[in-house]
Structures are given as structure tokens and as C-alpha cells.
Amino acid sequence: METMIATIERATAENTAPKAGTAHERAVRYILAGTRLALGWIFLWAFIDKMFGLGMATESKNAWINGGSPTKGFLTFGVTAVLPPENNPFMDDHLIYAAVLAVLALVNAGDTWGLGRMWARLPIVQRTPWLR
User: Fold this and answer.
1) Which of 19, 48, 88, 120 has the most CB atoms less than 10 A away?
2) Residue 28 belongs to domain spanning
3) Residue 17 within any structural domain of the chain
């Protein structure tokens, strides 16, 4: 009688790092990495503008460093501003952002032009793979 042994391969930097792959696969990796960086810039810019009041969406007098609240405008106006969506009866740019973020996480886009491989080597990430 043969004994069956089940093994689970732990996700590590060695087995999750991007492979050289074809030119098409490399292009996809770079496009997804660029998309991740662009989306990150959108969020970073929103933070910087709220923090310093650069005049784009936040006036200087309402800047966080000048005593303004970074959530006041959103809590009083922003929540209802997108309901229902202005240009479409059911789709909103926030849903698209959420979907893009999910795709970027699922394909480990941070491994290209990011800290994803270094993050994967952390002991806590190796013990709890859902952090990957």
C-alpha cells in the first residue's frame, strides 16, 4: 500500500519572482508596473495636496498643516457627490480603481519596479501568505 504525502509549496521570493519570459510577458509586467506607479501617484498627489494645500483640490488655507481637516470636505460633500455616478447609471471611477488595484495585487505587480520581492522575503509574509 502506497502512502500519499501532500505538500504545500510556500510562496517565497524565489518561486514568485518574475521570470524572464517572452517579450510579451515582459511588456505586460512593465505595463502593469507602470500602471501601479501611476495609480500610486494619484493617491500620493491627493495626500500632498491635502497636506500642503497646493491649490489643486485644496486651497492653502484649508491645508492640513494650516489646521484644515483632510476628511471634512469628503465627509460633508464627497460621499454624496458620486451617488449616483454623474456620467453613468451604475459605473464609477472608484469601482475601476478598486478593480485595477485588485488586478495589480493578484499579479504581484510590485515585483517589477517595486518592493514586492523584498516584501515576500519578510518572515511574517512567508508565514502568512495572504500578506503577499
Assistant:
1) 120
2) 22-131
3) no
